[in-house]
């Protein structure tokens, strides 16, 4: 689409303007997610230029905010969805993007143990959007689609038996839950084609966190996918148009630690093309994190500072319910004290450390769980009550994993675009937190009954 632009391959926390961020926290309150849509565009264009002939899908689950989906659709990305809710968002974003000139409705639904309600919703949507692709990871799912009258575009998720990723919880390639064993793929797809499905692709996603030093594993995985694609094409010869694409998933890593280097995208692109070999099908990739991680930060305010045994214990208003990754994956996120950085700037010091003493600090949220900690013994300028801190690389799997544990409302999200600031999603209130049960209590007993009867669990 647009000519590739020279953009830095990573935006570090120090690249965000402390004064601007602090004033956003003043204006919108904290905790607050901030997402820069220009950076999302830059990340898309960089990836597109490293994979010039690939079909690029955005894995919506990394950040499903409508503004992100519309931005990426406008850039030409398709959307890979993990649920009916994501498909609904993707179709809505595609319509908005179409009004701005984007074409095609390249939306994939990756059905992992899909609840009946999701299948019903997606099959209904398909009647209106016949270009929709459904990726299945079990023969059961094919049967369940057939029972619902679906004979549209079908892609098979295979389990390649290899995993990759920054943490065992994000390695999906070998987990029994995901996909059909690769050695069954040819039979399953030949059978699906016989039954009238429009077989269009094969898919695998080995995990999240593909890095430059795991390029060998990536190559091995992609080359297996290439072999499989050739086998499938041969088996399907004469049955329809053959395979349209080979989807090798996402998982492109981003550096979270200051010392980590960004992925060498050109090298990954070349290795992927090369390993896939000669196949008569398009290469498809579907990264999520890569587009949004460094486009977002989380702002949080310090409310408690106390001396603990070996560390300064600092309490902030964001917690594991706001940003779950540290508690769930032991993930590292860079943290900067904006107030201290601004003070240091005003005093003419060139770095944060000059203004305030640097000490080891444990920064924790308001949730009653010992895992509710953003960092332990991290060396930062001494925190003071009312300081605003920024947590970096929070654009991916940040708000998406936010929840209401401890009856805590979810934070607001704002977006930056063309120098403007816009509220993208308001902060939840205590009213929101209790709304569903109040509604249930207020509704008629008969209405209650109907909701119960609604489900069909096939
Ligand atoms: C999560 C997921 C992705 C994206 O993973 P990232 O690490 O965010 O790039 C892509 N495909 C599937 C099927 C996924 O589940």
Automatic annotation (TrEMBL):
<dbReference type="GO" id="GO:0009089">
    <property type="term" value="P:lysine biosynthetic process via diaminopimelate"/>
</dbReference>
<feature type="region of interest" description="Disordered">
    <location>
        <begin position="427"/>
        <end position="458"/>
    </location>
</feature>
<keyword id="KW-0456">Lyase</keyword>
<feature type="domain" description="Orn/DAP/Arg decarboxylase 2 N-terminal">
    <location>
        <begin position="38"/>
        <end position="293"/>
    </location>
</feature>
<feature type="binding site">
    <location>
        <position position="397"/>
    </location>
    <ligand>
        <name>substrate</name>
    </ligand>
</feature>
<comment type="subunit">
    <text>Homodimer.</text>
</comment>
<feature type="binding site">
    <location>
        <position position="251"/>
    </location>
    <ligand>
        <name>pyridoxal 5'-phosphate</name>
    </ligand>
</feature>
<dbReference type="InterPro" id="IPR002986">
    <property type="entry name" value="DAP_deCOOHase_LysA"/>
</dbReference>
<comment type="pathway">
    <text>Amino-acid biosynthesis; L-lysine biosynthesis via DAP pathway; L-lysine from DL-2,6-diaminopimelate: step 1/1.</text>
</comment>
<dbReference type="InterPro" id="IPR022653">
    <property type="entry name" value="De-COase2_pyr-phos_BS"/>
</dbReference>
<feature type="binding site">
    <location>
        <position position="329"/>
    </location>
    <ligand>
        <name>substrate</name>
    </ligand>
</feature>
<comment type="similarity">
    <text>Belongs to the Orn/Lys/Arg decarboxylase class-II family. LysA subfamily.</text>
</comment>
<feature type="binding site">
    <location>
        <position position="289"/>
    </location>
    <ligand>
        <name>substrate</name>
    </ligand>
</feature>
<keyword id="KW-0663">Pyridoxal phosphate</keyword>
<feature type="active site" description="Proton donor">
    <location>
        <position position="368"/>
    </location>
</feature>
<feature type="binding site">
    <location>
        <position position="325"/>
    </location>
    <ligand>
        <name>substrate</name>
    </ligand>
</feature>
<dbReference type="GO" id="GO:0008836">
    <property type="term" value="F:diaminopimelate decarboxylase activity"/>
</dbReference>
<protein>
    <recommendedName>
        <fullName>Diaminopimelate decarboxylase</fullName>
        <ecNumber>4.1.1.20</ecNumber>
    </recommendedName>
</protein>
<dbReference type="InterPro" id="IPR022644">
    <property type="entry name" value="De-COase2_N"/>
</dbReference>
<keyword id="KW-0028">Amino-acid biosynthesis</keyword>
<dbReference type="InterPro" id="IPR029066">
    <property type="entry name" value="PLP-binding_barrel"/>
</dbReference>
<feature type="binding site">
    <location>
        <position position="369"/>
    </location>
    <ligand>
        <name>substrate</name>
    </ligand>
</feature>
<feature type="modified residue" description="N6-(pyridoxal phosphate)lysine">
    <location>
        <position position="61"/>
    </location>
</feature>
<comment type="function">
    <text>Specifically catalyzes the decarboxylation of meso-diaminopimelate (meso-DAP) to L-lysine.</text>
</comment>
<keyword id="KW-0457">Lysine biosynthesis</keyword>
<dbReference type="InterPro" id="IPR009006">
    <property type="entry name" value="Ala_racemase/Decarboxylase_C"/>
</dbReference>
<feature type="binding site">
    <location>
        <begin position="286"/>
        <end position="289"/>
    </location>
    <ligand>
        <name>pyridoxal 5'-phosphate</name>
    </ligand>
</feature>
<feature type="binding site">
    <location>
        <position position="397"/>
    </location>
    <ligand>
        <name>pyridoxal 5'-phosphate</name>
    </ligand>
</feature>
<dbReference type="InterPro" id="IPR000183">
    <property type="entry name" value="Orn/DAP/Arg_de-COase"/>
</dbReference>
<keyword id="KW-0210">Decarboxylase</keyword>
<dbReference type="GO" id="GO:0030170">
    <property type="term" value="F:pyridoxal phosphate binding"/>
</dbReference>
<dbReference type="Pfam" id="PF02784">
    <property type="entry name" value="Orn_Arg_deC_N"/>
</dbReference>
């Amino acid at each position: 689409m647009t000519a590739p632009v020279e953009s830095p391959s990573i935006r570090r926390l120090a690249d965000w303007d402390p004064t601007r961020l602090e004033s956003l926290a003043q204006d919108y309150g904290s905790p607050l997610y901030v997402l820069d849509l220009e950076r999302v565009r830059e990340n898309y264009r960089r990836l597109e230029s490293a994979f010039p002939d690939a079909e690029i899908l955005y894995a919506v689950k990394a950040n499903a905010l409508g503004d992100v989906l519309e931005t990426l659709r406008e850039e030409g990305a398709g959307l890979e969805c993990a649920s009916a809710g994501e498909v609904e968002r993707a179709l809505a974003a595609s319509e908005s993007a179409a009004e701005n000139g984007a074409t095609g409705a390249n939306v994939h639904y990756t059905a992992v143990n899909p609840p009946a309600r999701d299948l019903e919703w997606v099959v209904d949507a398909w009647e209106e959007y016949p270009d929709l692709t459904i990726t299945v990871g079990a023969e059961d799912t094919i049967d369940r689609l057939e029972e619902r009258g679906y004979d549209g575009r079908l892609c098979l998720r295979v389990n390649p038996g290899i995993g990759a990723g920054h943490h065992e919880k994000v390695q999906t390639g070998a987990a029994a839950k995901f996909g059909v064993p690769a050695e069954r793929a040819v039979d399953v797809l030949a059978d699906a084609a016989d039954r009238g499905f429009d077989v269009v692709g094969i898919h695998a996603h080995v995990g999240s966190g593909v890095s430059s030093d795991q390029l060998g594993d990536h190559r091995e995985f992609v080359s297996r996918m290439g072999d499989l694609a050739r086998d499938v094409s041969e088996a399907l010869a004469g049955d329809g148009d053959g395979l349209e694409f080979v989807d090798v998933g996402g998982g492109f890593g981003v550096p979270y630690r200051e010392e980590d280097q960004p992925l060498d995208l050109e090298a990954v692109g070349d290795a992927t093309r090369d390993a896939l070999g000669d196949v008569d099908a398009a290469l498809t990739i579907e990264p999520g994190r890569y587009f949004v991680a460094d486009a977002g930060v989380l702002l949080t305010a310090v409310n408690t500072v106390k001396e603990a045994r070996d560390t300064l214990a600092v309490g902030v208003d964001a917690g594991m319910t706001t940003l779950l990754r540290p508690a769930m994956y032991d993930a590292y996120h860079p943290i900067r004290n904006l107030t201290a950085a601004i003070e240091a700037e005003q005093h003419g010091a060139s770095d944060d450390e000059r203004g305030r003493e640097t000490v080891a600090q444990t920064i924790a949220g308001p949730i009653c769980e010992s895992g509710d900690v953003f960092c332990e013994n991290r060396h930062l300028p001494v925190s003071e009550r009312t300081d605003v801190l920024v947590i970096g690389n929070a654009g991916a799997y940040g708000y998406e994993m936010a929840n209401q544990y401890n009856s805590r409302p979810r934070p607001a999200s704002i977006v930056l675009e063309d120098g403007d600031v816009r509220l993208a999603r308001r902060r939840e209130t205590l009213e929101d937190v209790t709304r569903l049960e109040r509604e249930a209590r207020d509704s008629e007993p008969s209405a209650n009954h109907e909701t119960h009867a609604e489900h069909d669990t096939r």
